[in-house]
Design a protein that fits this description.
With about 400 residues, the chain is of the alpha/beta class. It has 13 helices and 22 strands. A seven-stranded mixed sheet has the order 6-5-4-3-2-1-22. A seven-stranded mixed sheet has the order 7-8-9-10-11-20-21, with helices on one face. Strand 7 and strand 8 (about 135-140) form a beta hairpin. Helix 2 (about 65-75) crosses helix 4 and helix 6 packs across helix 8 (about 265-275). The protein is globular, with a radius of gyration of 21 Å. The structure holds zinc ion. Zinc ion binds near residues 57, 59, 142 and 162.
Length: about 400
């Protein structure tokens, strides 16, 4: 790796639309190609011709524009098996949401099918040979199948994608990899997470509260990762739990790839212990239960709105948010103003609303610690809207830090 020219096509300065294009000697590689699932969605810059694509994980801000690549470039796309299994579900859901909301649709169902022909499975620790390079996927600890990519010849580069450096119930934490250049996400730059065990305890106590006063706890959760983590937390309790939304299908797909779970046995047990909404009439039963885990995580759509609509005037019930609510989303509106857009009508919500931080990203100090243990010469910060705060701490530790802008060429 003598000459490396790199350029972010998106996602350098924001949490969304990530794409990193790298020219390494003769080789042209693309790492991730996502969209920002805002309303309307936003997209990265068009990708120049490339030889191969490496996908870190299936979340839309990393994978959402992959069909454009396979349609225009017909190249191999490397990803782990869980990513490959869940990808069509996510991409087809993007088309569905665009249809419902009346947004332009970035690709067709046929193009999503076309992606499947180009996907090549990779495994943690097994190098992919590419020219003079070895590219090695490592566990990123973020969701099942999430990968960091280590590029190796006489020099080393590590591209993290999204990372979590603390063990969760669902997956093992990411481990640092010694590298010369570290290209690291910075979603939580400047922000720390509360203690995980404490958060879990408060979460369960809150549900006990809600149930004892005769209410229902609605737990909106992202389909990929968060739903399964919450299922595992609730597996230890005796509540009557119901599961609805896309998380049901994703759970099954994860269970088909047991090697990527911390304990497939526990997830299977958690799934068997809860009630799954299979038909419309089950939704009535769920509303008479105690806890409902359902998509969408930011209340932008999905069955969660159906449940909230039923319980919006019930002061005994509660909405327990389990993920970060992005500015401009329905979930954020609920947190800030206690109102929600329900099928086009803004309504006041009387149920209690509580936020629990079950993030799948490393917090500020954890990112600093991770970088220190990778001991790179140079750090490239990406995928964050407050990178400066992280850069400052890393510079104080003696690291050279760069923060490229979208579209700007840089040399590493
Ligand atoms: Zn992610």
């Amino acid at each position: 790796m003598k000459n490396i020219n790199a350029r972010f096509l998106g996602g350098a300065e924001e949490v969304g639309s990530l794409g990193l294009y790298m020219e390494i000697d003769e080789l042209r590689l693309l790492f991730d190609y996502g969209l920002t699932p805002s309303k309307p969605p936003t997209y990265p810059m068009p990708a120049p011709p490339m030889d191969s694509v490496f996908l870190t994980h299936v979340h839309l801000d990393h994978s959402g524009m992959i069909p454009r690549i396979s349609t225009e470039h017909d190249v191999n796309i490397y990803a782990t098996q869980p990513t490959i299994s869940v990808l069509p579900l996510m991409l087809n859901d993007t088309i569905k949401v665009a249809n419902i909301e009346g947004f332009p649709i970035p690709y067709t169902k046929e193009e999503v099918e076309g992606v499947m022909d180009n996907l090549i499975p990779v495994e943690y620790g097994k190098p992919v040979e590419m020219g003079s390079l070895e590219i090695i996927p490592h566990n990123a600890g973020h969701i099942p199948g999430s990968a960091m990519y280590e590029l190796r010849d006489e020099r080393k580069i590590l591209f993290t994608g999204d990372i979590q450096t603390v063990n969760t119930h669902l997956v093992w934490a990411a481990k640092p990899v010694k590298t010369d250049v570290l290209i690291m996400e910075s979603t939580y730059a400047g922000r720390e997470h509360p203690d995980r065990n404490e958060t879990e305890k408060l979460f369960i106590e809150k549900i006990e509260d809600v149930v004892s006063r005769g209410g229902v706890a609605i737990v909106p959760a992202f389909a990929v990762g968060r739903t399964q983590e919450i299922m595992l937390i609730l597996a230890k309790t005796d509540f009557e739990v119901w599961l609805d939304g896309m998380g049901r299908f994703v759970t099954n797909l994860f269970l088909q790839n047991p090697g990527y779970l911390k304990s497939a046995k526990k997830l299977k047990k958690a799934k068997n212990r809860i009630n799954i909404v299979r038909r419309r009439s089950d939704r009535k039963k769920a509303l008479r239960g105690e806890v409902i885990i359902t998509t969408g995580g930011m209340l932008e759509g999905g069955p969660v709105l159906h449940y909230i609509n039923h319980l919006k005037n019930d002061t005994r019930s509660a909405i327990l948010l389990t993920g970060y609510q992005v500015e401009g989303t329905n979930g954020r509106l609920l947190m800030d103003e206690g109102i929600l857009d329900l099928y086009g009508v803004k309504e006041k919500i009387d149920s209690e609303v509580v936020f629990f931080d079950f993030s799948a990203h490393a917090g500020h100090s954890e990112l600093v610690e991770f970088a220190r243990k990778c001991s790179p010469e140079k750090i490239v910060l990406m995928h964050g809207d407050s990178r400066e705060k992280l850069a400052e701490d890393l510079k104080n530790l003696g690291f050279e830090v760069i923060m490229p802008k979208n579209g700007e060429s840089f040399v590493i």
